[in-house]
Write a structure and sequence with these properties.
alpha+beta; 3 domains; about 450 residues; three-stranded antiparallel β-sheet; GIY-YIG endonuclease; five-stranded mixed β-sheet; Nucleotidyltransferase, domain 5
Length: about 450
């Protein structure tokens, strides 16, 4: 498109919610091809920012406290916005905050997201990451206003003049050249950085589902951002499962949700029922656990057993729901505790489910210590390296991949056999019991 930059003001706002019940965190703008001006904004006294917003933006409370006052931000923006037509990617959202902050009637603006819907109709996602990534501007993982202004300006400059049937930068020929075999695949952005690591029994079929499927959301955004793919063929689904876990730990790809070292900080439960960030130096302990939230039900139940008035259970259950909002956590615990999922679990079911989930993870921690250094053999192959990883977060992820791959071998009738150095090796019946319990 190579549209002129003069008379355009590119803006971005990072905030929680909308004006009235949200908090403004950061604003940035750039007039034409000029430099980007970016400021964090000091929130009002007593304002609360959700933890998820802090995680997504990386704006810490300390950084917010050093920001400029709202009045100063409003003064700076009034002068900037009066100098040209406002351009933002999600203009309707930015307009709410900018209008609230400056009091200006912002009626002359361009929304690059709506522009992309008309110029790139084949895309399956139209967020800034998807559109900018497709056009060749990879955004960093944290959502910061400065980087978003730069990306919005790039999108404005590089949008095609006429609509083009945009689908993916990964060519069909490249996808079809992938083998119909088990293995691990990686999706790369325009700079060659790895966006996502996955595994499949058939690399070719899995790539086809990513780039030709109808599902949108995260899959649509990833397919838009990917510019190339590469893969590694494995001997079976088990080795693919193990290799995927290792690659995720090594590369920390931003589009993988599970198993990333940057998104997980393990904890340990000591014999004194206190939580530790590292294994206690003395005394028995259980772990590693993937998070403190996974232990809340267990700790609440322990508090009741420790002599607290059982009548306080009614008061504790709302706290349990607040501390453990993840439905999957409760669901998995209930499945383990009751061997079936109730249609409408009671509060007591939920508490017991949290306890069961904590116990499940404790068994995994014990199993991890037992299996460290083991090797796996099966009909027609074996695991090339012993089960080991230098840090506990990685080991916990690797254990999940190990169990998933073991199930694959067992389901395929390949008779898996586990050898544990210096310990009794696991028989086929013991492996079946292991998979049933864990």
């Amino acid at each position: 498109m190579k549209t002129a930059l003069s008379g355009r003001v590119f803006v971005d706002v990072q905030a929680s919610g909308v004006p009235g019940n949200g908090v403004l965190l950061e604003v940035a703008w750039a007039a034409g091809e000029g430099r980007v001006h970016c400021f964090t904004v000091r929130p009002p006294a007593g304002a609360s920012v959700p933890a998820i917003v802090r995680t997504l933006t990386g704006i810490t409370p300390d950084e917010s406290s050093r920001g400029i006052p709202l009045a100063e931000a409003a003064h700076l923006l009034r002068a900037a916005l009066a100098s040209g037509i406002l351009v933002a990617h999600h203009a309707q959202y930015e307009l709410k905050w900018l209008g609230w902050l400056t009091g200006m009637p912002l009626t002359d603006f361009v929304c690059t997201r709506e522009l992309a819907r008309g110029k790139l109709p084949g895309l399956r996602a139209f967020g800034l990451r998807a559109v900018a990534g497709y056009l060749g501007w990879p955004l960093p993982e944290l959502r910061r206003a400065r980087e978003h202004v730069e990306a919005t300006r790039f999108v404005w400059l590089n949008m095609p003049m006429a609509p083009e049937p945009a689908g993916s930068r990964v060519k069909r020929e490249e996808r079809l050249s992938a083998p119909d075999a088990p293995g691990v695949y990686e999706m790369l952005d325009s700079s060659g950085a790895v966006l996502y690591v996955g595994k499949s029994r058939s690399i070719r079929k899995r790539l086809a589902s990513w780039f030709t499927g109808r599902h949108g959301g995260g899959a649509g955004e990833l397919s838009a951002r990917a510019h190339s793919v590469r893969w590694t063929v494995c001997s079976c689904a088990f080795t693919a499962s193990m290799l995927e876990a290792r690659r995720i730990l090594e590369l920390d790809p931003p589009c993988n949700r599970a198993g990333r070292p940057s998104r997980r900080r393990c904890c340990y439960l000591g014999a004194d029922w206190r939580l530790y960030g590292d294994p206690p130096e003395s005394g028995a302990f259980r772990g590693p656990f993937p998070s403190e939230a996974s232990l809340k039900g267990l700790l609440l139940a322990h508090g009741l057993q420790g002599g607290e008035d059982a009548g306080e259970l009614t008061a504790l259950l709302p706290a349990l729901r607040e501390l453990c909002p993840d439905g999957n956590l409760f669901r998995l615990g209930l499945v383990c505790f009751r061997r079936e999922e109730p249609e409408e679990p009671t509060d007591m079911d939920r508490l017991l489910g949290g306890v069961a989930y904590g116990a499940l993870l404790a068994r995994r921690g014990a199993l991890l210590r037992f299996l460290r250094g083991c090797t796996v053999h099966w009909s027609g192959g074996d695991m090339p390296e012993p089960l080991a990883w230098p840090d506990p977060e990685g080991e916990l992820k690797l254990l999940g991949a190990f169990l998933a791959g073991l199930r694959e071998l067992d389901a395929d009738g390949l008779s898996p056999r586990i050898e544990v150095p210096g310990k009794q090796n696991l028989s086929t019946d013991q492996i079946h019991e292991l998979l049933r319990v864990v």
